Automatic annotation (TrEMBL):
Any Pfam family the entry gives: Hydrolase
Gene3D superfamilies named in the record: 1.10.150.750, HAD superfamily/HAD-like (3.40.50.1000)
MF GO annotations: phosphatase activity
Record organism: [Torrubiella] hemipterigena
Name by which UniProt lists this protein: Haloacid dehalogenase
PANTHER family linked to this entry: ACID DEHALOGENASE, PUTATIVE (AFU_ORTHOLOGUE AFUA_6G14460)-RELATED, HYDROLASE, HALOACID DELAHOGENASE-RELATED
Length: 242
């Protein structure tokens, strides 16, 4: 574990890793899914959402994430065999991102990890949504650098997002790519493209999570939670200094 201390920056996915993406989305979808006569499984629901998101983001890579969600909301209703929601209902679904809850361990874990690394956000979201998350669920926690899809004009796993990550960490923090650890839950959005980009990665499993899973997960470090990673890093730091 001491080896992990040789790195200088953690590049975080936020939604799914720090924030409960799936739980927040399920709550935001309750006005829609409560109309179902037969409940849909979590696996089937997120398989549809993943497909619709990926398709919409490919078609409109510069669209803000809250607008992506608003755009797929009526398509999701159609796939579930439900009446079309109103524009207001779809807009409200898209606007829910900033209210999705942080995982219980996230804030303390971030505080611990900030003692050892620069903390960077590389997220498939927009400024309005992230601001809501930062000031609300994350209680004002400040990252050293924030890079969002709204700025990049593309969504992970697009390689351009990781090119921007490397470029900005180098120019703004003075840290080279060989000192970065991509830290995330999603294999599809983060770990696979990070490996292609030549980055090390730490898999935050978040047991029970579905979105972004791949048949063969890849990673350099693996932890069930961010709190578990923070504890391991803290222990390694204590051993190093003893």
């Amino acid at each position: 574990m001491t080896y992990i201390l040789n790195y200088q920056a953690l590049a975080f996915d936020v939604y799914g890793t720090i924030v409960d993406w799936e739980g927040g989305m399920i709550t935001a979808l309750e006005p829609l899914t409560s109309q179902l006569k037969t409940p849909v499984s979590k696996e089937d629901l997120f398989a549809i959402i993943h497909e619709l998101e990926k398709e919409q983001q490919a078609q409109t890579p510069a669209m803000a994430y809250r607008d992506v969600l608003a755009a797929i909301h009526p398509k999701l209703a159609q796939r579930l065999g439900l009446p079309q929601p109103s524009v207001e209902e779809s807009t409200a679904f898209g606007a829910s991102v900033g209210k999705w809850p942080a995982f219980p361990d996230s804030i303390e874990a971030l505080k611990t990890l900030s003692k050892y690394y620069k903390l960077v956000v590389i997220s498939n979201t927009d400024h309005q949504s992230f601001q809501g998350t930062q000031t609300g669920p994350l209680q004002g926690f400040q990252f050293d650098l924030v890079i969002l899809a709204e700025d990049n004009g593309c969504y992970k796993p697009d390689p351009r997002a990781f090119e921007q990550l490397e470029s900005q960490i180098s120019s703004k923090l003075g840290i080279s790519k060989d000192k970065i650890i991509q830290t995330a839950q999603s294999q599809f959005h983060d770990h696979y493209p990070a490996k292609t980009a030549g980055l090390k990665s730490s898999w935050i499993v978040r047991p029970g999570s579905i979105m972004g899973n791949m048949p063969e997960p890849i990673y350099d470090w693996k932890f069930n939670t961010l709190g578990e990673m923070a504890a391991a890093v803290e222990n390694a730091g204590k051993r190093k200094n003893s």
